[in-house]
Amino acid sequence: MTWKLKPGVKWSDGSPFTADDVVFTWAYCEAPGGGCAQAAKFTGVKSVEALDPLTVKVTFTAPTPYPYQAFVGATSPILRKAQFQDCLGPKAPGCTAANFGPIGTGPFEVKAFKPNDSIVYIANENFRDPDKPAFASVNLKGGGDALSAARAVLETGECDYAWNIQIEPEVLKGMVDAGKGNALTAFGSYVERIDLNRTAVDAALGEKRSTLEGGPHPALSDPSVRKALSLAIDRDVIVEAGYGVAGKPTCNIIPGPEIYVSTANDWCLKPDVAAANKLLDDAGWKLGPDTVRAKNGVKLSFQLQTSTNSVRQATQALLKDMWSQIGVAVELRNIAASVFFGGDPSSPDTFQKFYADVQMYTNFFEGTDPQAYLSGWLCDKIPSPKNGWQGANYARYCDADYDKMIATLSKTQAPNDRAKLVKALNDKLVNDGVVIPLVYRGLTSAYSNRLAGVRQNAWDSELWNIADWSRAK
Amino acid sequence: MLGYAARRLLLAIPVLLIISFVIFSLLTLAPNDPLGDLPLTIPPEVRADMRAALGLDQPFFIRFLLWLHQFFVNEPMNLLQAMTGLDFRDAHRTRVLSWTTRSPVVDLIVQRLPQTLWVVGLAYLFGVMLAVPIGVLSAYRQHSWFDQIGAFVAMVGYSTPTFFTGVVLIVVFSVKLKWFPSVYDTNLKVTDWASFIAQVRQMALPVLVLTLYNTSQISRFVRASMLDNLHQDYVRTARAKGVKERSVVLFHVLRNSLIPVVTVVALGVPTIFSGAIVTEQVFRVNGLGQLLITAIQSGDLPLVQTLTFIFAVLIVAFNLIADLLYGLLDPRISYE
Question: In degrees to the nearest 10, what's the CA dihedral of A360, B298, A164, A395?
Answer without folding.
Answer: -20
